[in-house]
Specification:
295 residues, globular, six-stranded antiparallel β-sheet, single chain
Length: 295
């Protein structure tokens, strides 16, 4: 088991600041000989890549993609244009590598970044393949990304139920990837920033072993990102660890929104006013006396 630690950062955004905390880990699992997953987790970009391909092809594909995206994050300008340029460079890296030229070589790439360029900050998810971004908000867990897979297409067409899809023999067949002969434009989803949000970014090594309910359970049980990552990783390994497993947990706190919520709760309590114990007792006594008189 890898050692997992929580990192944190206070980020200036239009109108205030956000407090971000996150943790990440990757593990080979119990059945694979090598780990073809890779990740980058540091403000403002949090991404996971799950490589595929014989020999070391998948490892090269995921590592090349993460390396190119890391350079974008380090440069400090993360947006769809810079991401797509980085992925195009990764495709060239993969195609030119002597051990990664097989048509089956490629990688998923899935993640989220914080966009602070507008009047209000927004999260933007990106996705190619079947790794996933989940969001827990107001007690509910939602899969934000849509899998690019044969099984997902069958579900969307109504030919498979979600339950049937879980154990379908084509479960590992994806329809889009970053690779030598594939397009590199991700799907994007834009999300408002909300105090208390928790993101989970993961490869399918986690979702093969834990349901959405299971992921939410471990998040509910572990407030610290590192503890949540460790708990989910341990559970995935215990459930079989059939694939490489990579998990990023990212927590979002908006101090201003939290203060507004607390102030509103205090105001509601103040409107109710304090209870006059003596007056309440007297009213109760008068009610009892009135009841006795009626009898």
């Amino acid at each position: 088991m890898p050692e997992v630690s929580t990192q944190s950062r206070t980020v200036p955004v239009p109108g205030g600041v956000l407090e971000l905390s996150w943790a990440a880990a990757t593990d080979t699992g119990r059945r694979r000989e090598v780990n073809q997953d890779a990740f980058f987790a540091d403000y403002p970009l949090f991404v996971v890549a799950d490589g595929m391909g014989g020999h070391v092809g998948g490892e090269i594909a995921s590592a090349s993609t993460i390396e190119r995206l890391t350079a974008v994050a380090d440069a400090g300008l993360v947006n769809p244009k810079t991401i797509e340029k980085a992925l195009a460079r990764a495709v060239k890296d993969i195609a030119s590598h002597p051990e990664a030229t097989d048509d089956g070589t490629g990688t998923t790439v899935t993640g989220v970044f914080l966009d602070t360029t507008g009047e209000a900050a927004h999260w933007v998810t990106l996705n190619i393949g079947d790794s996933r971004v989940y969001l827990v908000r107001d007690g509910a867990i939602v899969q934000i990304t849509t899998d690019h897979s044969v099984v997902q297409e069958l579900v969307a067409a109504g030919r498979l139920s979600p339950e049937e899809a879980e154990n379908h023999p084509y479960g590992n067949v994806i329809t889009r990837a970053v690779g030598p002969s594939d397009g590199v434009k991700p799907d994007y989803v834009r999300l408002d920033v909300a105090d208390g949000d928790r993101f989970v970014i993961c490869s399918d090594g986690l979702t093969k072993e834990l349901t959405d309910y299971g992921i939410r359970h471990f998040l509910d049980e572990n407030a610290d990102p590192a503890a949540a990552v460790t708990a989910m990783l341990e559970a995935a390994l215990e459930n079989g660890g059939r694939d490489n497993i990579t998990i990023v947990v990212l927590d979002v706190k908006d101090p201003a929104a939290a203060r507004e919520r607390d102030d509103a709760a205090d105001a509601a309590d103040a409107d109710t006013g304090p209870i006059d114990v003596d007056a309440a007792a007297a009213a109760a006594a008068d009610g009892a006396a009135s009841s006795t008189d009626d009898d």
